């Protein structure tokens, strides 16, 4: 038996009663993060239009994939994923200063930084999606167009 000062003693060897309503199965962190991204996108689909909505959808898709892929990652990597989700959902300044609304491009920068730190450059969200080969004009002299 061990105890924490100012708390009741805890017996770590005692069996846990799973039927006890106080004992609850903890919700996986990834489930919470995925639900937060989905809830944000639901609101974004109502509040945003045009390019902002498209950017929010692409950021949400990248985060959903990242959350799903890091379920068995280290605690440090999961913390980075959590920070990326919070950058989109909360859109706050670092160190807790709450702004009225931080821009999606600021959230995009944070999310892309986390993606690069985790070695997931394949999920980086560009400001404008790159046109596919079929979208480029056939007779265009421009190599970039």
Description:
The chain has a domain at 29-123. The protein has helices at 29-47, 50-69, 75-89, 104-117. It is globular. It has 4 helices and no strands. Helix 1 packs antiparallel against helix 2 (50-69), helix 1 packs parallel to helix 3 and helix 3 (75-89) runs antiparallel to helix 4 (104-117).
Based on the model shown, name its key terms:
single chain; 145 residues; mainly alpha; 4 helices; 47% helix
Helical coverage, percent range: 40-55%
Determine Rg (CA atoms, Å). 21 Å
Question: What structural category characterises the helix and strand content?
Answer: mainly alpha
Number of strands: 0
Poorly predicted parts: 21-26
Mean pLDDT: 77
Query: Which word captures the global form?
Result: globular
What can be said about the biggest beta sheet? none
- Give the N-to-C terminal Cα separation: 71 Å
Number of helices: 4
Q: How much beta, percentage-wise?
A: under 5%
**Secondary-structure element series:** HHHH
Topology:
Elements: H1 29-47, H2 50-69, H3 75-89, H4 104-117
Helix pairs in contact: 1-2, 1-3, 2-3, 2-4, 3-4
Short description:
The protein is mainly alpha-helical and 145 residues long. It is 47% helix and 0% strand.
């Amino acid at each position: 038996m061990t105890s924490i000062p100012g708390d009741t003693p805890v017996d770590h060897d005692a069996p846990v009663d799973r039927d006890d309503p106080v004992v609850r199965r903890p919700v996986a962190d990834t489930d919470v993060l995925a639900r937060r991204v989905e809830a944000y996108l639901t609101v974004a689909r109502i509040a945003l239009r045009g390019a902002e909505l498209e950017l929010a959808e692409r950021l949400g898709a990248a985060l959903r994939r990242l959350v799903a892929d890091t379920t068995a990652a280290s605690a440090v990597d999961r913390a980075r994923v959590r920070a990326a989700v919070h950058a989109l959902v909360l859109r706050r300044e670092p160190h807790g200063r709450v702004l009225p609304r931080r821009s999606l491009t600021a959230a995009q920068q944070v999310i892309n930084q986390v993606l690069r730190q985790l070695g997931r450059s394949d999920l980086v969200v560009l400001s404008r999606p790159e046109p596919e080969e079929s979208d480029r004009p056939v007779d265009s002299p421009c190599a970039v167009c």
